[in-house]
């Protein structure tokens, strides 16, 4: 340890019921390095630190694993091997590959998280081409959607896992932005919505839209086609389709109807 007697970092205790041994072993080794505890002469100190860091139930378990010897009789490396053999599960290659190939992206899992989980699942698969296996499974196991469709269209010779993750995230972000409140719709939508809002009901008498039928000055004029009052000839439904009249246009027939009505 450093000459000042000050230790660097925080070394927590290890309880096998709530902690992962592999992660803890990595952390304690880094703590040894940070505090300059290394070399064969330091093994006695390492053993004392490790044993004192074990929780009560874990210390009892380690003592049982050491039988017929006591933990005090074992070297540091022997204690670590005991814990390695006990806490590290035996890996079977094809079983690990089965877990890898059967995995799929779950709801709420980002593409970055999905790729990271696949890397963890591939740790003991011993693939001959790890990156190719990861890329294939990343795309094949993705949730159905635009992101996967986009990747299906890519040149697989030019695609890497990192590029696939970036592309999928870009498509996801674009979709989220497009779906956000206030996002602009396809071209023409804004114009169509304006016309839908401002479209007025046309007068059944003359066809204009700047007044209602009961306010039309032609409401008492006779139709020159059917002879009935209440509409002009161009609005007559007898024998042909009702005609729309552009607002503000001059219609000579209207004047003619008024004069002869």
Automatic annotation (TrEMBL):
Domain CCHC-type per the UniProt entry, residue ranges = 222-236
Coiled-coil region list? none
Top-level division of the source organism's lineage:
Eukaryota
Keyword check for Magnesium, yes or no.
Answer: no
Q: Which PROSITE patterns match?
A: ZF_CCHC
User: Which of UniProt's keywords are assigned here?
Assistant: Metal-binding, Zinc, Zinc-finger
Please list which residues make up the signal peptide. Answer: none
SMART domains given in the database record: ZnF_C2HC
PANTHER family, A to Z: ANK_REP_REGION DOMAIN-CONTAINING PROTEIN-RELATED, CCHC-TYPE DOMAIN-CONTAINING PROTEIN
The name this protein carries in UniProt is CCHC-type domain-containing protein
Taxonomic lineage is: Eukaryota, Metazoa, Ecdysozoa, Arthropoda, Hexapoda
